[in-house]
Amino acid sequence: MADAVGASVGEVTRVDDLGEIERASSPRWVWWRTAEIYPALLEAGVRVQRCHDLAAVQSLLRTYEGEPFVPPQSALSEPAGSGAVQISLFTDDEAASKPSRRLGAGPDGDPAMYGTYFGLAELRRHYAEQLAHIARVRKAHPGFGLLVAAESAAGLAAVEMGRAGLPWSTEIHDRVLTDLLGPRPQHHGRPRKLQVLAEEVSALLAPEKTGPALQVNPDSPADVLKAFKRQGVTLTSTRAWELKEVEHPAVAPLLRYKELARLHVAHGWGWQDQWVRQGRFHAEYVPGGVVTGRWATSGGGALQIPKVMRACVVADPGYVLVAADAGQLEPRILAALSADRGMIAATADADMYTALARQALGRPEARNEAKIGLLAAMYGARANTPAMVALKRRFPQALDLLERAARTGENGGIVRSVLGRTCPPPEPTWQEVPPEQALARSRARGRFTRNFVIQASAADWANALVAGLRRRLIALSDRAELVFFQHDEVLVHAPAMLAEAVVAAIADSGAEATALVLGDRGVRIPLAAAPITSYADKN
DNA sequence: GGGGACAGCCAC
DNA sequence: AAACGTGGCTGTCCCC
């Protein structure tokens, strides 16, 4: 992060010039929104090493100061009535000094360029203000500069990932869908196997009437509830876990229907038509789109690909996918944040939950109890299981950190991630309700802040991972591409001969993220990377 | 016919 | 076993 606005500010103008400057000195480009400017640069063959995304940083600074969360896409509103279309960006690097030029609007301007419509002076003013603001914040939260840099790097990675796309075999996808659902329907309507299940459910729930039309629509919870009621079965919902407890012949086909219908509507042929082009699933990623700093997506549902569909993600011939995820990231983050010596010791174990079970319960085979107990503590479960009590006794500092975060939230306070990402405050009127509702709101707010410190700090770590990995992959080869990132896991698509180098790049990036974000606290975050051909082969 | 609330399930 | 955090997405249902 530069500490001053470079003297060499210049409007750039033709993409070729920008590319030349980038190759010569890789400055930190300053612009309004990466998502608006960077796709056109990539289209023109210019890959940028570093940037400062004013909108993303504005979002971080706003919440830091106690303002409501504003997703980064809209953190900087555009001035009204602005006329000419121009791209404003500049570099803060003196070495990049060039005569003032203008990008996009000239007679020989690149028609592919479009963007945000601010003047350069306003851009410079915002940047200078942000730098001064960041410098102030860093006095209290030294990690904030890293947060800002990683957030901007994440923005670059997100655009590149969306452009590269996730290798997606439509052939395998078709096969999976056909196996599960039957052939693709000609027009609308349900695929054959889905229709058969729907009719079976209907016949079993409304046996008194028969005919081509369904008496019970399995997609309608109200319909299903009424039908079960007629059968003498009273349900409070049609959730899968509740249905599983009911003994009725319609339950099994209904559960199967729900499972398959979900795949059909959310990841079926329609989804493929919309999102997969030429063997690549192109999603739109939104770094910082979640209040905790996790990434979101807008369209395509890239962060919710069902596990059965992972078989569709396959490397090109001669390529591999290098997959890695940080196992048990959140409990490891908790160990680091709380500096609980016993819990830090447990992070040495590849399976942290077994270590916790051994230390707190004296029984390594109680792994699952320990896991559920700790997750429940991090999410704020009401029930206090014996495992939770044992964890509290054995790891008091760790559990106390969670309790304090919860108390802060219940009292209307704010909490921050390890790097300084800040949760938004409650609505000013949040307690202006009847007392029992006020208590419920207070508890809910406590669960939010309790989880925020963990989830947001895990997101800090993950963004640092992505930033470091991106840097290393750029140095390695244009053909080694980050193609997927999901909270704590990455997929790199690379020529097979680069597999080892990519594995090393991922391992190095993980170690770097741990050192940068968590410092020297002795916490281990394993990030085992392995080359695979199909995403289904992971783990 | 479009918007919004709600239900339900997918991911972490 | 079933209630405990962050989301996206799609269906139904009801309203305008």
Automatic annotation (TrEMBL):
Top-level enzyme category: transferase
InterPro entries from the UniProt entry: DNA-dir_DNA_pol_A_palm_dom, DNA/RNA_pol_sf, DNA_polymerase_A
Keyword Disulfide bond carried by entry: no
Keywords: DNA replication, Exonuclease, Hydrolase, Nuclease
EC number: 2.7.7.7
Catalytic activity of the protein: DNA(n) + a 2'-deoxyribonucleoside 5'-triphosphate = DNA(n+1) + diphosphate
A Gene Ontology molecular function term of the record: DNA-directed DNA polymerase activity
Signal sequence range: none
DNA-directed DNA polymerase family A palm domain sequence ranges: 306-498
SMART domains listed in its UniProt record: POLAc
One annotated GO biological process: double-strand break repair
Record-given protein name: DNA-directed DNA polymerase
Lineage: Bacteria, Bacillati, Actinomycetota, Actinomycetes, Kineosporiales
